[in-house]
Task: structure prediction
Amino acid sequence: MPKGISDKKTITVLSIGTFLEYFDLMLYIHMAILLNELFFPQNLEHDPLLISALSYCATFIFRPVAALFFGKLGDRLGRKSIIALSSFIMSITCLIMANLPTYEQIGITATYLFLALKMIQGASSMGEIVSAEIYVIESFKPPKQYLMLNIVNISVVFATLCSILLAYYSTSYDDSSSWRFAFWVGSLMAFVGAFARKKLPETKEFSRKSIKTTKSLFGNNALLNKNSFRILLYLLIEFARPATSYFAYIYCAIILKTELHYSAKEILLQNSLLALFDLLACIFITWLCFKFRPIIILRFKTLIFLPLLICIPYLLNGASNCYSILAIQLILVFFGPKPVPNSPSFSMSFETRKRMTTVSMVFAVSRVLVYVITSFGMAYMYKIIGNFAILIILGPVTFGFLYALGKFNIIEQNLVR
Result:
Protein backbone atom coordinates (compact mmCIF):
# COMPACT_ATOMS: atom_id res chain seq x y z
CA MET A 1 0.00 0.00 0.00
CA PRO A 2 1.44 3.45 -0.91
CA LYS A 3 2.70 5.26 2.13
CA GLY A 4 0.75 8.24 3.42
CA ILE A 5 -2.57 7.43 1.77
CA SER A 6 -5.33 5.08 2.90
CA ASP A 7 -6.61 2.07 0.98
CA LYS A 8 -10.00 3.73 0.66
CA LYS A 9 -8.61 6.96 -0.75
CA THR A 10 -6.31 5.17 -3.19
CA ILE A 11 -9.03 3.00 -4.69
CA THR A 12 -11.48 5.92 -4.74
CA VAL A 13 -9.12 8.17 -6.70
CA LEU A 14 -8.19 5.35 -9.09
CA SER A 15 -11.80 4.31 -9.66
CA ILE A 16 -13.01 7.85 -10.26
CA GLY A 17 -10.16 8.52 -12.67
CA THR A 18 -10.76 5.23 -14.51
CA PHE A 19 -14.47 6.00 -14.72
CA LEU A 20 -13.84 9.46 -16.14
CA GLU A 21 -11.41 8.32 -18.83
CA TYR A 22 -13.29 5.19 -19.82
CA PHE A 23 -16.42 7.30 -20.04
CA ASP A 24 -14.73 9.14 -22.92
CA LEU A 25 -13.46 5.95 -24.59
CA MET A 26 -16.88 4.30 -24.49
CA LEU A 27 -18.51 7.51 -25.70
CA TYR A 28 -16.49 7.27 -28.92
CA ILE A 29 -17.28 3.57 -29.37
CA HIS A 30 -20.98 3.54 -28.58
CA MET A 31 -21.80 6.71 -30.51
CA ALA A 32 -20.20 5.16 -33.59
CA ILE A 33 -23.62 4.02 -34.82
CA LEU A 34 -24.47 7.73 -35.17
CA LEU A 35 -21.03 9.24 -35.83
CA ASN A 36 -20.32 6.92 -38.78
CA GLU A 37 -23.28 8.48 -40.57
CA LEU A 38 -21.92 11.98 -39.92
CA PHE A 39 -18.24 11.48 -40.76
CA PHE A 40 -18.17 8.90 -43.56
CA PRO A 41 -19.17 9.36 -47.23
CA GLN A 42 -22.80 8.51 -47.87
CA ASN A 43 -22.00 6.20 -50.79
CA LEU A 44 -20.37 3.71 -48.38
CA GLU A 45 -23.51 3.20 -46.32
CA HIS A 46 -24.43 0.06 -48.23
CA ASP A 47 -21.83 -1.90 -46.25
CA PRO A 48 -22.34 -1.03 -42.54
CA LEU A 49 -20.18 -3.95 -41.33
CA LEU A 50 -17.18 -2.62 -43.25
CA ILE A 51 -17.70 0.97 -42.09
CA SER A 52 -18.10 -0.21 -38.51
CA ALA A 53 -14.89 -2.25 -38.82
CA LEU A 54 -12.91 0.75 -40.08
CA SER A 55 -14.28 3.06 -37.40
CA TYR A 56 -13.88 0.51 -34.60
CA CYS A 57 -10.34 -0.55 -35.50
CA ALA A 58 -9.15 3.04 -35.78
CA THR A 59 -9.48 3.29 -32.00
CA PHE A 60 -6.98 0.47 -31.45
CA ILE A 61 -4.63 0.43 -34.45
CA PHE A 62 -1.89 2.54 -32.83
CA ARG A 63 -2.14 0.94 -29.41
CA PRO A 64 1.04 -1.17 -29.83
CA VAL A 65 3.05 2.02 -30.45
CA ALA A 66 1.35 3.68 -27.49
CA ALA A 67 2.01 0.59 -25.37
CA LEU A 68 5.72 0.76 -26.11
CA PHE A 69 5.80 4.49 -25.33
CA PHE A 70 3.67 4.42 -22.16
CA GLY A 71 5.16 1.10 -21.04
CA LYS A 72 8.78 2.27 -21.23
CA LEU A 73 7.84 5.58 -19.63
CA GLY A 74 5.91 3.85 -16.85
CA ASP A 75 8.76 1.44 -16.11
CA ARG A 76 11.19 4.36 -15.83
CA LEU A 77 9.19 7.24 -14.31
CA GLY A 78 6.52 5.32 -12.45
CA ARG A 79 2.89 4.30 -12.77
CA LYS A 80 1.13 7.43 -11.50
CA SER A 81 2.66 9.80 -14.11
CA ILE A 82 1.22 7.72 -16.96
CA ILE A 83 -2.21 7.67 -15.36
CA ALA A 84 -2.37 11.48 -15.28
CA LEU A 85 -0.84 11.97 -18.76
CA SER A 86 -3.30 9.62 -20.46
CA SER A 87 -6.28 11.43 -18.89
CA PHE A 88 -5.00 14.79 -20.14
CA ILE A 89 -4.63 13.52 -23.73
CA MET A 90 -8.14 12.07 -23.62
CA SER A 91 -9.51 15.44 -22.51
CA ILE A 92 -7.94 17.22 -25.51
CA THR A 93 -9.27 14.70 -28.07
CA CYS A 94 -12.82 15.00 -26.70
CA LEU A 95 -12.60 18.78 -26.82
CA ILE A 96 -11.56 18.73 -30.49
CA MET A 97 -14.21 16.12 -31.31
CA ALA A 98 -16.93 18.31 -29.80
CA ASN A 99 -16.09 21.02 -32.36
CA LEU A 100 -15.21 18.88 -35.39
CA PRO A 101 -17.08 19.72 -38.64
CA THR A 102 -18.98 16.83 -40.26
CA TYR A 103 -18.52 15.24 -43.70
CA GLU A 104 -21.37 17.33 -45.04
CA GLN A 105 -19.49 20.50 -44.02
CA ILE A 106 -15.87 19.84 -45.08
CA GLY A 107 -16.00 16.57 -47.02
CA ILE A 108 -13.45 13.76 -46.75
CA THR A 109 -11.23 15.89 -44.47
CA ALA A 110 -13.79 15.30 -41.72
CA THR A 111 -13.37 11.52 -42.16
CA TYR A 112 -9.59 11.74 -41.85
CA LEU A 113 -9.75 13.99 -38.79
CA PHE A 114 -12.38 11.77 -37.17
CA LEU A 115 -10.23 8.65 -37.64
CA ALA A 116 -7.11 10.49 -36.42
CA LEU A 117 -8.87 11.55 -33.22
CA LYS A 118 -10.06 7.98 -32.62
CA MET A 119 -6.48 6.73 -33.04
CA ILE A 120 -5.09 9.29 -30.57
CA GLN A 121 -7.91 8.63 -28.11
CA GLY A 122 -7.37 4.87 -28.35
CA ALA A 123 -3.63 5.33 -27.78
CA SER A 124 -4.18 7.47 -24.67
CA SER A 125 -6.62 4.94 -23.19
CA MET A 126 -3.83 2.37 -23.56
CA GLY A 127 -1.83 4.15 -20.87
CA GLU A 128 -4.87 4.51 -18.65
CA ILE A 129 -6.20 1.02 -18.18
CA VAL A 130 -2.85 -0.80 -17.91
CA SER A 131 -1.26 1.73 -15.56
CA ALA A 132 -4.35 1.73 -13.31
CA GLU A 133 -4.40 -2.07 -13.21
CA ILE A 134 -0.70 -2.36 -12.40
CA TYR A 135 -0.99 0.41 -9.79
CA VAL A 136 -3.62 -1.65 -7.95
CA ILE A 137 -1.67 -4.90 -8.32
CA GLU A 138 1.51 -3.34 -6.91
CA SER A 139 -0.31 -1.48 -4.12
CA PHE A 140 -2.26 -4.37 -2.59
CA LYS A 141 -1.64 -8.00 -1.74
CA PRO A 142 -3.99 -10.97 -2.28
CA PRO A 143 -6.81 -11.45 -1.46
CA LYS A 144 -7.51 -7.70 -1.14
CA GLN A 145 -5.82 -7.28 -4.52
CA TYR A 146 -8.69 -9.06 -6.29
CA LEU A 147 -11.35 -6.98 -4.56
CA MET A 148 -9.64 -3.67 -5.34
CA LEU A 149 -9.07 -4.53 -8.99
CA ASN A 150 -12.68 -5.62 -9.33
CA ILE A 151 -13.78 -2.24 -7.96
CA VAL A 152 -11.75 -0.53 -10.69
CA ASN A 153 -13.30 -2.88 -13.26
CA ILE A 154 -16.78 -2.02 -11.96
CA SER A 155 -15.96 1.65 -12.57
CA VAL A 156 -15.11 0.75 -16.20
CA VAL A 157 -18.47 -0.95 -16.73
CA PHE A 158 -20.28 1.90 -14.94
CA ALA A 159 -18.51 4.34 -17.26
CA THR A 160 -19.77 2.31 -20.22
CA LEU A 161 -23.33 2.52 -18.91
CA CYS A 162 -23.14 6.29 -18.27
CA SER A 163 -21.57 7.01 -21.67
CA ILE A 164 -24.33 5.06 -23.47
CA LEU A 165 -27.02 6.87 -21.49
CA LEU A 166 -25.49 10.25 -22.28
CA ALA A 167 -25.23 9.29 -25.95
CA TYR A 168 -28.87 8.17 -25.86
CA TYR A 169 -30.13 11.44 -24.40
CA SER A 170 -27.86 13.47 -26.70
CA THR A 171 -29.53 11.85 -29.72
CA SER A 172 -33.04 12.31 -28.30
CA TYR A 173 -33.24 15.88 -29.51
CA ASP A 174 -34.05 17.00 -33.03
CA ASP A 175 -31.00 19.27 -33.12
CA SER A 176 -28.47 17.55 -35.42
CA SER A 177 -25.56 18.86 -33.34
CA SER A 178 -26.86 17.66 -29.95
CA TRP A 179 -24.28 14.82 -29.94
CA ARG A 180 -21.54 17.44 -29.45
CA PHE A 181 -22.79 18.07 -25.92
CA ALA A 182 -21.74 14.53 -24.95
CA PHE A 183 -18.13 15.22 -25.97
CA TRP A 184 -18.05 18.55 -24.14
CA VAL A 185 -19.04 16.68 -20.99
CA GLY A 186 -16.47 13.96 -21.74
CA SER A 187 -13.67 16.50 -22.13
CA LEU A 188 -14.48 18.11 -18.79
CA MET A 189 -14.62 14.75 -17.02
CA ALA A 190 -11.26 13.63 -18.41
CA PHE A 191 -9.64 16.88 -17.25
CA VAL A 192 -11.03 16.38 -13.73
CA GLY A 193 -9.68 12.82 -13.77
CA ALA A 194 -6.18 13.96 -14.73
CA PHE A 195 -6.13 16.52 -11.93
CA ALA A 196 -7.39 14.04 -9.30
CA ARG A 197 -4.78 11.42 -10.14
CA LYS A 198 -1.85 13.79 -9.71
CA LYS A 199 -2.31 13.33 -5.95
CA LEU A 200 -1.57 9.60 -6.05
CA PRO A 201 1.80 8.47 -4.61
CA GLU A 202 4.00 5.98 -6.44
CA THR A 203 3.49 2.29 -5.70
CA LYS A 204 5.75 0.77 -3.05
CA GLU A 205 6.83 -2.13 -5.23
CA PHE A 206 7.94 0.14 -8.08
CA SER A 207 9.70 2.55 -5.70
CA ARG A 208 11.93 -0.17 -4.33
CA LYS A 209 11.97 -2.13 -7.65
CA SER A 210 11.65 -5.41 -5.77
CA ILE A 211 12.24 -7.98 -8.49
CA LYS A 212 11.74 -11.71 -8.11
CA THR A 213 13.55 -13.87 -10.62
CA THR A 214 11.54 -16.18 -12.83
CA LYS A 215 13.41 -19.12 -11.32
CA SER A 216 12.19 -18.28 -7.84
CA LEU A 217 8.64 -17.91 -9.12
CA PHE A 218 8.30 -21.07 -11.18
CA GLY A 219 10.83 -23.44 -9.68
CA ASN A 220 12.08 -26.10 -12.08
CA ASN A 221 9.26 -25.67 -14.62
CA ALA A 222 11.42 -24.86 -17.67
CA LEU A 223 8.50 -24.00 -19.93
CA LEU A 224 6.92 -21.50 -17.54
CA ASN A 225 10.34 -19.98 -16.85
CA LYS A 226 10.44 -18.89 -20.48
CA ASN A 227 9.21 -15.31 -20.62
CA SER A 228 8.10 -15.71 -24.24
CA PHE A 229 5.84 -18.63 -23.30
CA ARG A 230 4.22 -16.65 -20.48
CA ILE A 231 3.65 -13.77 -22.90
CA LEU A 232 1.95 -16.18 -25.32
CA LEU A 233 -0.27 -17.46 -22.51
CA TYR A 234 -1.15 -13.89 -21.53
CA LEU A 235 -2.06 -13.14 -25.16
CA LEU A 236 -4.46 -16.09 -25.17
CA ILE A 237 -6.06 -14.68 -22.02
CA GLU A 238 -6.33 -11.13 -23.36
CA PHE A 239 -7.75 -12.22 -26.75
CA ALA A 240 -10.97 -13.18 -24.98
CA ARG A 241 -12.25 -9.88 -23.61
CA PRO A 242 -12.21 -7.79 -26.82
CA ALA A 243 -13.71 -10.65 -28.83
CA THR A 244 -16.72 -11.14 -26.56
CA SER A 245 -17.17 -7.35 -26.13
CA TYR A 246 -17.19 -6.82 -29.89
CA PHE A 247 -19.93 -9.39 -30.48
CA ALA A 248 -21.99 -8.26 -27.47
CA TYR A 249 -21.94 -4.51 -28.07
CA ILE A 250 -20.96 -3.91 -31.69
CA TYR A 251 -21.97 -6.90 -33.79
CA CYS A 252 -25.38 -7.26 -32.13
CA ALA A 253 -25.93 -3.52 -32.63
CA ILE A 254 -25.26 -3.96 -36.35
CA ILE A 255 -27.78 -6.84 -36.46
CA LEU A 256 -30.35 -4.60 -34.78
CA LYS A 257 -29.72 -1.89 -37.37
CA THR A 258 -29.50 -3.96 -40.55
CA GLU A 259 -31.86 -6.86 -39.84
CA LEU A 260 -34.41 -5.38 -37.44
CA HIS A 261 -34.10 -1.77 -38.73
CA TYR A 262 -33.61 -0.15 -35.35
CA SER A 263 -32.61 3.51 -35.11
CA ALA A 264 -29.39 4.71 -33.45
CA LYS A 265 -31.43 5.89 -30.47
CA GLU A 266 -33.12 2.50 -30.03
CA ILE A 267 -29.79 0.67 -30.29
CA LEU A 268 -28.25 2.93 -27.64
CA LEU A 269 -31.17 2.16 -25.33
CA GLN A 270 -30.66 -1.57 -25.91
CA ASN A 271 -26.93 -1.32 -25.15
CA SER A 272 -27.63 0.73 -22.02
CA LEU A 273 -29.74 -2.16 -20.69
CA LEU A 274 -26.90 -4.54 -21.55
CA ALA A 275 -24.37 -2.33 -19.75
CA LEU A 276 -26.63 -2.28 -16.67
CA PHE A 277 -26.73 -6.09 -16.59
CA ASP A 278 -22.97 -6.15 -17.21
CA LEU A 279 -22.49 -3.89 -14.17
CA LEU A 280 -24.65 -6.14 -11.99
CA ALA A 281 -22.70 -9.17 -13.22
CA CYS A 282 -19.39 -7.52 -12.25
CA ILE A 283 -20.70 -6.81 -8.77
CA PHE A 284 -21.87 -10.43 -8.45
CA ILE A 285 -18.47 -11.75 -9.61
CA THR A 286 -16.77 -9.49 -7.05
CA TRP A 287 -18.94 -11.05 -4.33
CA LEU A 288 -18.04 -14.55 -5.56
CA CYS A 289 -14.34 -13.72 -5.08
CA PHE A 290 -14.96 -13.83 -1.32
CA LYS A 291 -16.16 -17.43 -1.70
CA PHE A 292 -13.94 -18.97 -4.40
CA ARG A 293 -10.55 -18.51 -6.04
CA PRO A 294 -10.95 -16.11 -9.00
CA ILE A 295 -9.30 -18.52 -11.44
CA ILE A 296 -11.87 -21.19 -10.50
CA ILE A 297 -14.67 -18.71 -11.20
CA LEU A 298 -13.24 -17.98 -14.65
CA ARG A 299 -12.91 -21.66 -15.54
CA PHE A 300 -16.46 -22.46 -14.40
CA LYS A 301 -17.97 -19.56 -16.38
CA THR A 302 -16.04 -20.44 -19.52
CA LEU A 303 -17.02 -24.12 -19.41
CA ILE A 304 -20.68 -23.07 -19.22
CA PHE A 305 -20.11 -20.69 -22.16
CA LEU A 306 -18.88 -23.42 -24.55
CA PRO A 307 -22.24 -25.14 -25.18
CA LEU A 308 -24.02 -21.78 -25.20
CA LEU A 309 -21.60 -20.54 -27.87
CA ILE A 310 -22.73 -23.29 -30.26
CA CYS A 311 -26.33 -22.09 -29.88
CA ILE A 312 -25.62 -18.37 -30.53
CA PRO A 313 -25.63 -18.48 -34.40
CA TYR A 314 -28.95 -20.37 -34.37
CA LEU A 315 -30.41 -17.89 -31.86
CA LEU A 316 -29.29 -14.94 -34.02
CA ASN A 317 -30.80 -16.49 -37.14
CA GLY A 318 -34.12 -16.86 -35.36
CA ALA A 319 -34.07 -13.49 -33.59
CA SER A 320 -37.16 -11.43 -34.41
CA ASN A 321 -37.06 -8.69 -31.79
CA CYS A 322 -34.75 -6.80 -29.44
CA TYR A 323 -35.45 -9.13 -26.51
CA SER A 324 -34.03 -12.18 -28.25
CA ILE A 325 -30.95 -10.15 -29.22
CA LEU A 326 -30.61 -8.95 -25.61
CA ALA A 327 -30.65 -12.55 -24.37
CA ILE A 328 -27.72 -13.34 -26.69
CA GLN A 329 -25.87 -10.24 -25.51
CA LEU A 330 -26.36 -11.27 -21.88
CA ILE A 331 -24.85 -14.70 -22.56
CA LEU A 332 -21.78 -13.01 -24.05
CA VAL A 333 -21.18 -10.46 -21.27
CA PHE A 334 -21.86 -12.79 -18.33
CA PHE A 335 -20.48 -16.16 -19.43
CA GLY A 336 -18.06 -15.02 -22.14
CA PRO A 337 -14.34 -15.48 -21.28
CA LYS A 338 -12.53 -12.46 -19.84
CA PRO A 339 -9.51 -12.08 -17.49
CA VAL A 340 -11.33 -10.28 -14.68
CA PRO A 341 -11.37 -11.11 -11.74
CA ASN A 342 -8.04 -12.98 -12.01
CA SER A 343 -6.00 -10.24 -13.74
CA PRO A 344 -3.49 -9.84 -10.85
CA SER A 345 -2.18 -13.39 -11.23
CA PHE A 346 -1.59 -12.85 -14.95
CA SER A 347 0.25 -9.53 -14.57
CA MET A 348 2.29 -10.52 -11.50
CA SER A 349 4.02 -13.30 -13.46
CA PHE A 350 6.24 -10.63 -15.08
CA GLU A 351 9.20 -8.84 -13.45
CA THR A 352 8.52 -5.44 -11.88
CA ARG A 353 11.09 -3.54 -13.97
CA LYS A 354 9.53 -4.78 -17.25
CA ARG A 355 5.97 -5.37 -16.10
CA MET A 356 4.28 -2.29 -17.52
CA THR A 357 5.99 -2.58 -20.91
CA THR A 358 5.16 -6.29 -21.19
CA VAL A 359 1.55 -6.01 -19.99
CA SER A 360 0.94 -2.92 -22.14
CA MET A 361 2.27 -4.59 -25.30
CA VAL A 362 0.24 -7.76 -24.72
CA PHE A 363 -2.87 -5.69 -24.01
CA ALA A 364 -2.38 -3.56 -27.13
CA VAL A 365 -1.39 -6.33 -29.56
CA SER A 366 -4.29 -8.52 -28.43
CA ARG A 367 -6.76 -5.69 -29.11
CA VAL A 368 -5.36 -4.88 -32.53
CA LEU A 369 -5.28 -8.50 -33.68
CA VAL A 370 -8.72 -9.37 -32.32
CA TYR A 371 -10.49 -6.23 -33.49
CA VAL A 372 -8.98 -6.30 -36.97
CA ILE A 373 -9.59 -10.02 -37.47
CA THR A 374 -13.02 -9.96 -35.84
CA SER A 375 -14.50 -6.81 -37.36
CA PHE A 376 -13.07 -7.12 -40.89
CA GLY A 377 -13.35 -10.92 -40.80
CA MET A 378 -17.03 -10.75 -39.90
CA ALA A 379 -17.61 -8.16 -42.64
CA TYR A 380 -16.57 -10.73 -45.25
CA MET A 381 -17.39 -14.09 -43.62
CA TYR A 382 -20.93 -12.94 -42.85
CA LYS A 383 -21.62 -12.79 -46.60
CA ILE A 384 -20.58 -16.44 -46.96
CA ILE A 385 -21.76 -18.30 -43.85
CA GLY A 386 -23.77 -15.66 -41.99
CA ASN A 387 -23.86 -15.72 -38.20
CA PHE A 388 -22.00 -19.05 -38.06
CA ALA A 389 -18.82 -17.00 -38.62
CA ILE A 390 -19.03 -16.24 -34.89
CA LEU A 391 -17.97 -19.82 -34.14
CA ILE A 392 -14.85 -19.48 -36.32
CA ILE A 393 -13.67 -16.58 -34.16
CA LEU A 394 -15.01 -17.23 -30.66
CA GLY A 395 -14.38 -21.00 -30.77
CA PRO A 396 -10.55 -20.85 -30.92
CA VAL A 397 -10.52 -17.82 -28.59
CA THR A 398 -12.46 -19.71 -25.93
CA PHE A 399 -10.38 -22.90 -26.14
CA GLY A 400 -7.16 -20.86 -26.07
CA PHE A 401 -8.44 -19.04 -22.98
CA LEU A 402 -9.12 -22.34 -21.17
CA TYR A 403 -5.66 -23.68 -22.06
CA ALA A 404 -3.95 -20.54 -20.75
CA LEU A 405 -6.03 -20.65 -17.56
CA GLY A 406 -4.68 -24.11 -16.81
CA LYS A 407 -1.08 -22.94 -17.17
CA PHE A 408 -1.64 -19.75 -15.15
CA ASN A 409 -3.16 -21.88 -12.39
CA ILE A 410 0.31 -23.42 -12.00
CA ILE A 411 1.89 -19.96 -11.99
CA GLU A 412 -0.56 -18.71 -9.36
CA GLN A 413 0.19 -21.65 -7.08
CA ASN A 414 3.93 -20.85 -7.30
CA LEU A 415 3.30 -17.15 -6.61
CA VAL A 416 1.50 -17.82 -3.34
CA ARG A 417 4.12 -20.26 -2.01
Summary: The chain has 19 helices and no strands. Confidence is low (pLDDT under 50) at residues 210-220. Residues 75 and 123 are 17 Å apart (CA to CA).
